[in-house]
Design brief:
By secondary structure, the protein is an alpha/beta fold. Helix content is about 50%, strand content about 20%. The chain has one domain.
Length: about 180
């Protein structure tokens, strides 16, 4: 496959919590029910903390929290499946950033000798990053594109947030894709 072919087929770039289809100018965000369920979970966990551990009411409350977690997981999984199916049906080539999610969601707590700064803000960011389920979504898009005969490419996330006029994708001899962006 030539560089011109990749440039021609490059229609989809995914980043953060939003999927932005360059061809249709359509923006998709996570379902709103997830945020409501997280509020419900925290409220139920506070109720659980006031109950005597391993009592009948404690067990009932614990079960209700588990049901809410299961519902949240099913909603996110459904959303990821629907969006990845739509992407794999409408696009022959999908290019995605190869994000290191474990590094992005690392703790800012620091050590006793060198305590971290903005720990609370970083913990909120970590929660938001992990709530998205990027890796699971990436795997779904990958296997659905393979089924459909499409091509899934991971690129280095360096400089992909810049607004660019010209995007070219080249594959070196090693087979590792490289995205060239010029402003």
């Amino acid at each position: 496959m030539t560089e011109a072919y990749f440039h021609h087929c490059l229609e989809r770039v995914l980043s953060c919590a939003l999927c932005y289809d360059l061809h249709r100018r359509k923006r998709t965000s996570h379902p709103l029910e997830v945020k409501d369920l997280e509020t419900k979970i925290s409220w139920n966990q506070r109720k659980l903390s006031r109950k005597k551990k391993f009592s009948k009411k404690w067990k009932r409350q614990k079960l209700s929290i588990q049901k809410i977690y299961s519902k949240k997981a099913r909603i996110l999984k459904d959303f990821h499946h629907k969006l990845s199916t739509e992407i794999s049906k409408n696009h022959a080539i999908v290019v995605m950033e190869d994000l290191k999610i474990a590094n992005m969601s690392a703790s800012a707590k620091g050590r006793l000798e060198e305590p971290g700064s903005n720990v609370k803000a970083k913990s909120g960011l970590n929660k938001a990053i992990l709530r998205q389920g990027w890796y699971a979504f990436r795997q779904m898009v990958d296997y659905k594109l393979q089924w459909a005969g499409g091509k899934f490419i991971l690129v280095n996330p360096r400089n992909t947030s810049k607004s660019v006029r010209n995007v070219t994708l080249s594959i070196a001899i090693t087979g590792r894709p490289k995205l060239n962006l010029t402003a």
